[in-house]
Automatic annotation (TrEMBL):
Gene Ontology CC: one annotated term: protein-DNA complex
Name under which the protein is recorded: Response regulator transcription factor
Positions of modified residues (4-aspartylphosphate): D59
Ranges for domain OmpR/PhoB-type: 138-235
Organism of this sequence: Zoogloea dura
PROSITE patterns in alphabetical order: OMPR_PHOB (PS51755), RESPONSE_REGULATORY (PS50110)
Residue ranges of every copy of the Response regulatory domain listed in the record: 10-123
Top-rank taxon: Bacteria
Key word Phosphoprotein present: yes
InterPro entries documented for this protein: CheY-like_superfamily (IPR011006), OmpR/PhoB-type_DNA-bd (IPR001867), Sig_transdc_resp-reg_C-effctor (IPR016032), Sig_transdc_resp-reg_receiver (IPR001789), WalR-like (IPR039420), WH-like_DNA-bd_sf (IPR036388)
Compartments where found: Cytoplasm
Gene Ontology molecular function, alphabetical: phosphorelay response regulator activity; transcription cis-regulatory region binding
DNA-binding residues: 138-235
Keyword terms, alphabetized: Activator, Cytoplasm, DNA-binding, Phosphoprotein, Repressor, Transcription, Transcription regulation, Two-component regulatory system
Length: 240
């Protein structure tokens, strides 16, 4: 009988407060993850050049670079889990983080088990929710006359014109395309993250995607609102 041993996921902790960074790292290691600490954005980007982790725990208040700028650069180049940790009470920062591609957030101070729960939730959806062909060159979705290339976030309209989606929009479209003609709740579209009554990030992303397809939000034909349930992509999708 053969057995397999799980390789612990690698998590980068980008946090300039030593005590908090150590607490996060100790908590992660206690639950079986590998953690590497970075005190500055510069050190973090240097680490990324050597290896991309499974997940990044990112503090928005870094000493050498604004956390939002770090988030934007990370999402522009890499696909990995991203958990924002912030001491800021402003809801705007949290919504902006989600809009720019963060998977979830925790606010300081937080309970270690809350951190682990959110880490586990994010890691369950990586390296991705979308089942695509094994050959990367064939990962192209065709639907309702449109083409979408997830590898480059490229959306091509029926006339052949193309544009590049933001990471957040591309992630959302990928999930919709993976489950065509199925109602997806806001929680499912956020990958299982709990959705509060004030969290409108999915609704904002849906609205932006609809504008890409020139849909009237009140009479959308491609991305439909199923009131009280969620959203549905009304189209046949072919992966080639």
């Amino acid at each position: 009988m053969s057995t397999t041993t799980r390789t612990p996921e690698l998590i980068y902790v980008v946090e300039d407060e030593a005590a908090i960074a150590r607490l996060i790292a100790d908590t992660l290691e206690k639950f079986g993850y590998r953690a590497e600490l970075f005190r500055t954005a510069e050190a973090f980007f240097h680490g990324l050049r050597h290896r991309v982790p499974d997940l990044v725990v990112l503090d928005l208040g870094l000493p050498d670079m604004d956390g939002m700028a770090v988030l934007q650069q990370l999402r522009g180049k890499h696909t990995c889990g991203l958990l924002v940790v912030t001491g800021r009470s402003d809801t705007y920062d949290r919504v902006m983080g989600l809009e720019m591609g963060a998977d979830d957030y925790v606010v300081k101070p937080f309970e270690p088990r809350e951190l682990i729960a959110r880490v586990r939730s994010i890691l369950r959806r990586y390296p991705g929710q979308v089942v695509m062909p094994a050959d990367p060159a064939q990962r192209v979705a065709e639907f309702a006359g449109w083409r979408f290339e997830p590898g480059s976030n490229t959306l091509i309209n029926p006339a052949g014109q193309q544009e590049t989606l933001s990471t957040a929009e591309a992630q959302l479209l990928s999930v919709l395309l993976a489950h065509p003609n199925h109602i997806l709740t806001r929680e499912q579209l956020l990958g299982g993250r709990d959705v509060s009554a004030l969290d409108r990030s999915i609704d904002l992303r849906i609205s932006r995607l609809r504008r890409r397809f020139e849909e009237n939000p009140q009479h959308a034909k491609l991305i439909k609102t199923v009131y009280g349930a969620g959203y549905l992509l009304a189209s046949t999708v072919t992966w080639s």
